[in-house]
Write a structure and sequence with these properties.
By secondary structure, this protein is mainly β. It has strands at 2-7, 11-16. Strands 1-2 form a two-stranded antiparallel sheet.
Amino acid sequence: MIETIVCSHSRELTIQLPPEYVDQDLRITVCALAELPPAQAKRQLGWMTGGLVLSPDFDEPLEDFRDFSP
């Protein structure tokens, strides 16, 4: 069944209700959506390639922790 509901500020809302809701009291909330901000540009992958260089012994145990390692 299609129902037409007159909302405040003289706007109409037409909705199709499922049969089980036709004879029931319903509260319908309608809200105006704000305009979304423009999407940001897509990030470019790999723009830092080669910008960070690790020393060859990066994965080696640190001298400060020799006493604590097995």
